[in-house]
Amino acid sequence: ETGVTQTPRHLVMGMTNKKSLKCEQHLGHNAMYWYKQSAKKPLELMFVYSLEERVENNSVPSRFSPECPNSSHLFLHLHTLQPEDSALYLCASSQVGEETQYFGPGTRLLVL
Amino acid sequence: AQTVTQSQPEMSVQEAETVTLSCTYDTSESDYYLFWYKQPPSRQMILVIRQEAYKQQNATENRFSVNFQKAAKSFSLKISDSQLGDAAMYFCASLLNNNDMRFGAGTRLTVKP
Predict the structure, then answer these.
(1) If you average pLDDT over residues A66-85, what whole number do you get?
(2) Structure confidence at residue A95 (pLDDT)
(3) Of A52, B38, B44, B71, which one has the greatest count of Cβ atoms within 10 A?
(4) Beta carbons of A101 and B101 less than 8 Å apart
């Protein structure tokens, strides 16, 4: 695997389900990000982890819970989501001190 | 707060011709970075070009170049010799030192054969 990978690529879940999105970067980076891309809205930064420490939250609802066990892996745990949470969730990584972010292919989430 | 504005929701260009996508931003910081990303139908965000605000010289990557006007807070993307594979959504983004990247709403580029 190369670059940034995300699994699953598509996910359908009910409002009472609990699921997790996974992101893995193979670039040797030490910062990782979660973004939300909704229809007709700019990308929204949700969470930032730098050197495995969370540095940005952006007032994301608590039904989204990130986890960064090491510099290569990032998870987004989902529970009791709402239909308006349906979106494309993008993961990105970068090297601290080098500003370019590299993105994964995204997970398309549909909440019923 | 920083904001990024792309005033062209859609643009089209004839194959082999040149097109310019507009972007303006608003930040009070003096040190920042600017990016253009491309998002084809596969939804993968791909870096097209980046510009450091402290550099006066406009960045160039093959057929892609920018016109960076710092005083006007303008950062337009020029695509020369447009190809069918250039068709995508293009997003302008600004990044401050705090890892906070802000994106514009995007411009959908259509390339006509």
Answers:
(1) 95
(2) 92
(3) B38
(4) yes
